[in-house]
Design a protein that fits this description.
Blueprint (H helix, E strand, L loop, with lengths): L1 H30 L4 H32 L3 H27 L6 H9 L1 H17 L10 H5 L1 H12 L1 H4 L3 E2 L12 E2 L1 H24 L6 H4 L1 H17 L7 H18 L9 H7 L4 E5 L4 E4 L8 H9 L2 E3 L2 E8 L2 E8 L1 H50 L1 H15 L5 H24 L5 E3 L1 H14 L5 E8 L2 E3 H18 L3 E10 L4 E9 L5 H5 L6 E8 L2 E8 L7
Parallel strand pairs: 9-11
Antiparallel strand pairs: 1-2, 3-4, 3-7, 5-6, 6-7, 8-10, 11-12, 12-14, 13-14
Helix pairs in contact: 1-2, 2-3, 3-4, 3-5, 5-7, 5-9, 7-9, 9-11, 11-12, 15-17, 16-17, 17-18, 17-19, 18-19
Length: about 550
């Protein structure tokens, strides 16, 4: 309200000043042709009138400089203001500083009126084309080319003395101001001014996005329409007046009406806009006294503002920022409540996921242990199945010992031999799956332990082994089962046993020599069959020689 009242006072002051300037002109006209005293008074009032006109124009240009936002629009507006100032100065020089109005210099100043009259409407075209454009927008090539016809029209007017196509002088060029006619090219100049001015007003209304009343938005069009009517009335000499003053006043009214109707962007009403906006911001001076505060701004202490100067701070759910500006500071706050809420939700989700992850980990661990136990049980079952015959023999021997058998030591020795086989057979099965590969030295370890236990029966044993690389488990088990089968058949009368085993990358074979206390029937030997081995026997009464190699159809090592 205070600012609106101040603007109203400015308008009233400008109207009063223009009225005083008008009265000065009327006084000057009344005193024209009088005595020396009248001439002195006329000079004073004319000078006062000129000062008023120039002062009002300069003050208006300064206000435009402070109000216009867009940098390029500001440049165009200031250029237009400079052209209006030149127009007024040219009129002052022509009327008051030439020796007589009929001199050539006065006539060229009169022609120069058309420099601002042609260029100012063109500047209006550039101004309106920059409205609603980005800050760094530049005029297009077509717009820049409009300067060419403007310069040509100015050149035609300034060279009128040579062709009289703009003005003609029926009573001679010396009477240019009193008697002149408008020629063809004058109407071209007038059409240019009306076209550019009309385009300016039309685009102002078209680009307007401000929800003002229709009457306010049509104000520039009304002013322009009245200006066109005035021009035609002046051309047809229906009215007489100071054309320069009236035209400058019309242009000022047109631009000012566009600004006040918010059709030409300016920084008017910024205080009211900030005060009523939902933007949480405020402006303080250097002493931290509040100057402008929006309705949603927080009530901050001086200590909080000083802290936010160094680094933005958090107050409740708001992030406070401070930026130094000329004369003070601007303070704004960002609502981060939603972000904080999201962070809290993420924390809850993280904890929930962590708990679920612990549960899943525990569940997986239980499943893994259960699967391992199942696998171990399967292996134990498979081991028990593989050595079931030996286990049955061991149980029978243990029962005999418990029943008081006379050959306990012999039975214990046999149990050790079978036990070593059960143990080593189980170890081999645990080393890998049925079709897996194992280190061939496992066969050497198994055979050595079996032969060591065989010594308990009084047998002489020898093992010569060359085991290199890996061999499939089923082949290794085949060789070991061959030895065990032989021992189980002849364990009661074995006196010596020598085993030679050779396993390399290219071959696998075994030679067994057994000494017996009595001969063994070939039928017993021939009953020993091993799936993957070719076995040959040589029975020499109390000595047996067995040779075993992998079958040709066996899978390669």
């Amino acid at each position: 309200m205070i600012k609106e009242r101040k603007i109203r006072y400015y308008y009233i002051g400008a109207i009063i000043s223009l009225f005083v300037a008008f009265m000065c002109r009327q006084v000057s006209l009344l005193l024209a042709g009088g005595d020396a005293q009248s001439l002195f008074i006329s000079v004073i009032v004319i000078t006062l009138r000129n000062i008023i006109h120039i002062s009002l124009l300069v003050l208006w240009c300064v206000s435009l400089y402070n109000r216009i936002i867009n940098k390029r629009v500001k440049i165009y507006v200031m250029l237009g203001g400079a052209l209006l100032a030149y127009w007024v100065l040219a009129r002052i020089i022509k009327n008051d500083f030439t020796v007589t109005n009929h001199e050539t210099l006065g006539r060229y100043f009169w022609y120069s009126y058309y420099i601002p009259m042609i260029l100012v409407p063109l500047i209006g075209v550039f101004i309106v084309n920059h409205i609603d454009k980005p800050y760094n927008y530049k005029s297009t090539l077509f717009q820049n080319l409009l300067c060419i016809p403007a310069v040509l029209l100015i050149g035609i007017v300034m060279s009128n003395d040579y062709h009289n196509l703009v003005f003609s002088f029926p009573e001679g060029i010396m009477m240019f101001e009193d008697v002149y006619n408008y020629e063809t090219l004058y109407w071209v100049v007038l059409a240019w001014m009306i076209s550019c001015g009309g385009y300016f007003v039309f685009m102002l209304i078209k680009k307007s996005r401000v929800p003002e009343s229709q009457e306010m938005q049509s104000l520039p069009a009304v002013i322009f329409g009245l200006a066109v009517i005035f021009w035609f009335m002046f051309i047809f000499r229906l009215i007489t007046c100071d054309l320069t003053t009236v035209n400058c006043s019309i242009i000022v009214l047109l631009v000012e009406s566009a600004i006040q109707c918010n059709m030409l962007p300016s920084n008017n009403n910024y205080i009211e806009v900030l005060s009523t906006s939902t933007i949480a911001a405020q402006i303080v001076d250097n002493d931290y006294n509040k100057k402008i505060v929006s309705s949603t701004a927080m009530d901050l202490t001086i200590e909080q503002i000083k802290s936010a100067e160094k680094e933005r701070i958090m107050v409740d759910d708001y992030l406070v920022n401070v930026k130094e500006i000329p004369g003070g500071y601007v303070i704004w706050q960002d609502d981060v409540s939603k972000i904080n809420k999201l962070i809290d939700n993420l924390k809850d989700t993280k904890e929930q996921l962590s708990e679920e992850n612990d549960l899943l980990t525990a569940e997986l661990s239980v499943r893994e242990r259960r699967a391992r136990a199942d696998e171990e049980n399967k292996l134990y079952d498979e081991i028990a199945k593989e050595v079931s015959k030996q286990l049955k023999s061991v149980r029978a021997m243990i029962n005999n010992i418990e029943n008081g058998a006379s050959n306990k030591n012999e039975l214990m020795a046999k149990i050790c031999v079978l036990g070593s086989y059960i143990k080593r057979r189980g170890n081999l099965l645990l080393l890998g799956k049925r079709d897996g590969d194992v280190n061939s030295q496992e066969l050497e370890f198994s055979l050595r332990e079996t032969l060591d236990n065989l010594k308990l029966l009084g047998a002489y044993t020898v093992l010569e082994s060359k085991c290199e690389g890996e061999i499939k488990l089923k082949y290794l088990v085949g060789f070991y089962d061959l030895v065990e089968s032989l021992i189980e058949y002849i364990m009661d009368n074995i006196t010596a046993m020598m085993i030679r085993v050779n396993i390399t990358q290219d071959s696998a074979d075994m030679n067994i020599q057994i000494g017996l206390s009595r001969a063994v029937d070939n039928v017993v030997l021939e009953s020993i069959k091993i799936k993957y081995l070719d076995i040959s026997f040589e029975n020499q009464d109390e000595d047996i020689i067995i040779n075993a190699t992998l079958k040709k159809e066996a899978v390669s090592l």
